[in-house]
Amino acid sequence: MSNLSQDQVEKRAAIQKSATIWGGIVGVIAGLLALWILNGQGGAIRFGGAIVIALAVGYLVFRASFKSGAKSALCENCGAAFSRSRSDRDETLASSEEKEEREEQPDKSTKVTTWTEETYDVVDTYACAKCGDTNTKTYQTTRRRDETSVVEPHAPPPPPKAPAPPSPPKAPKKPKPPAAPASKGGNSPPKKDSAGGNKK
Ligand SMILES: [Zn+2]
Q: Which of 7, 34, 147, 161 has its Cβ near the most Cβ atoms within 10 Å?
């Protein structure tokens, strides 16, 4: 890889830089953890061990990160190293949804957060600087927009409802009065003769 173009050299430097940052961060964390774990040991062992662990972990992370960066920059078409990089990004809004989240605070108030969650279809285009081959990668990403939060003061819960009084035992249904006999003719009480006065 002695005949790298300027683009490739820059790309490699960028991958190296991010790998170094990652290795450094993770290495320092590992070293601090080692300091903490080796708390009971003497000073030399404690600090020596922490430095060794920090360097070892940092190096491993650097190597893994560089490898993955180099792999993603490798052109599958022409095999050129450090040649592939993102040339374009196209985002399309796929959906947007109103969301709300309620979170109770220690003082019993409620933090209400509302936002619009937008889902985008993203198409990233990667191009090889050497052969011009392009390929795309499609994925979805979500973003929060117009996020606002308000704190609602604690409202005492409504008093518990008094238990409903036991419903009185249902009175037995009154038996329906027997239907009047259908044959009204003979059984009906004799009508008072209203026309009595007219009787001759
Ligand atoms: Zn290529």
A: 34
Same domain, 53 and 31: yes
Given a contact cutoff of 8 angstroms between Cβ atoms, the answer to whether 122 and 139 are in contact is: yes
149 CB-near residues (< 8 Å, 6+ apart)? 111, 112, 113, 114
Q: Is residue 97 assigned to a domain?
A: yes
Q: Which domain holds residue 25?
A: 6-72
Q: How far is the CA of 74 from the centre of ligand 1 (A)?
A: 8
Residue 73 CA to ligand 1 center (angstroms) comes to 10
Q: To the nearest whole percent, how much of the chain has pLDDT over 70?
A: 76
Q: What is the pLDDT of residues 94-141, one digit of tens each?
A: 999 999 999 988 888 999 999 999 999 999 999 998 898 998 999 999
Distance CA(61)–CA(20), nearest Å, equals: 9
Spacing, Cα 121 to ligand 1 middle (Å): 26
pLDDT for 186 beyond 60: no
Distance 178 CA to ligand 1 centre (A): 102
pTM metric for this prediction: 0.54
